[in-house]
User: What shape does this take?
Amino acid sequence: MLDQFTFIGIFLIVALIFGVAPLAIAFVLRPKKPNPRKTETYECGLQPHGEAWVQFKAQHYIFALVFVVFDVEAVFLLPWALAYNQLSLYAVVEAIIFILILLGALGYVWRKNALEWM
Assistant: This one.
């Protein structure tokens, strides 16, 4: 049993080395010549105007996140829809429960007014 933990320990050490070594090498070998031109904020080749920290409405982020969640869930339903004729009753009941959970989530998001674009 100790051999298994030894293997896991060696694997963990090697994984840490592979993760930290490139960062350390890049830190040591990088060019260190900062100047105002290099530290300037870059915005698509245009000169930046105003503050870099702008108030961002969290509602846009939530709207996009809800879209991604429901889009991924629709992808999970596609194989079930394609194999509907070959599924057992258990699989159909599981899919119905899955759809009910999605409808509950949609109702929750709708009630919180996260679907309104302002």
Summary: The chain has a mean pLDDT of 84. The CA atoms of residues 9 and 15 lie 10 Å apart. The helical segments are 2-29, 58-82, 89-111. The chain is about 65% helix and 0% strand.
